[in-house]
Amino acid sequence: MRKDSVLVCYGKLAPENIKGYKYLILESKHYFPSNLRVFKSQNEKVFAYISLGEVNENAIHYQDLKKLTLGKNKIWNSHYLDLSKKKTIETLMLIVDELFEKGYDGLFLDNFDNYTIHGPQKDQKAGIIELMQLIKKKYPKKMFIQNAGLELLPDTNSYVDAVAVESVVTDYDFKTQKYGLKKAEQAQKYLSELDKIHQSYKIPVILIEYADSERLAAQIKDQLEDTKFDYFIGNIDLQTIPKFKK
């Protein structure tokens, strides 16, 4: 079995123990630039997480944005951003500046699906595209991973270096908190669609899958055996190195 080439972790890791990943995606608040230098010396590319669609109540910039939000995502205790407000864009750009000053190779851009046809901010599709133009223009040599929001790729593909997709073969139920697999036919259809996207836009696809047991993780790897996509299999909270019960 091949080793996962991606690690996504929003909890605090010991930098000296994290080695050999192609894409390492971190929550920057846990690390000093000195920690980041260790991560970068032992892994190919290190990305900082940032949401371009929501602000969590625990975020440092929540106080700056809480009066500029459009409603609440109760699953993650976060609030939807209003990109039509100048203050929102200025605050997000300040965060981007701070992350790159710390030395990250790129950003993992979350909540793009919020701006798609069924998303809570579907009326601000133009806003997210303009924001991506702004970020890429300021940082043309940095790397960006778009998480989800595949229907935006015709407009955003030239500003991002990869697209991440969650739960392609897995199926986590937030109500019951149960992990599972999609039906094989459904999963293979999804993988085929992603392959077409990869071919059309010539950008890498990264799969993020969720498991709680060694058995389910092994089943996921079996389903992904023939794919050329890089992937990650982790626990739904993404707070630690993945732990799977036997």
Outline the structure in words:
The mean pLDDT is 95. An 8-stranded parallel beta sheet has the order 1-2-3-7-8-9-10-11. Strands 4-6-5 form a 3-stranded antiparallel beta sheet, with no helix packed on it. With 246 residues, it is an alpha/beta fold. The two termini are 17 Å apart. Helix 7 (214-223) links the parallel strand 10 and strand 11. The protein has helices at 33-42, 62-65, 86-102, 125-138, 153-156, 184-201, 214-223; strands at 6-9, 23-26, 45-51, 54-56, 69-73, 78-81, 106-110, 143-147, 162-166, 205-210, 230-234. The chain contains 7 helices and 11 strands. The protein is globular and about 50 Å long. The longest helix is centred in the C-terminal third of the chain and has 18 residues, at 184-201.
Helix percentage: 25-40%
Question: Based on DSSP secondary structure assignment, what is the total number of beta strands?
Answer: 11
Strand share of the residues? 15-25%
Output the helix-strand order: EEHEEHEEHEHEHEHEHE
**What is the residue-mean pLDDT, rounded to a whole number?**
95
Overall structural class, as computed from helix and strand content, comes to alpha/beta
Instruction: Trace the largest sheet across and list its strands.
Output: 1-2-3-7-8-9-10-11
Radius of gyration: 18 Å
Shape: globular
Largest sheet: 8 strands, parallel
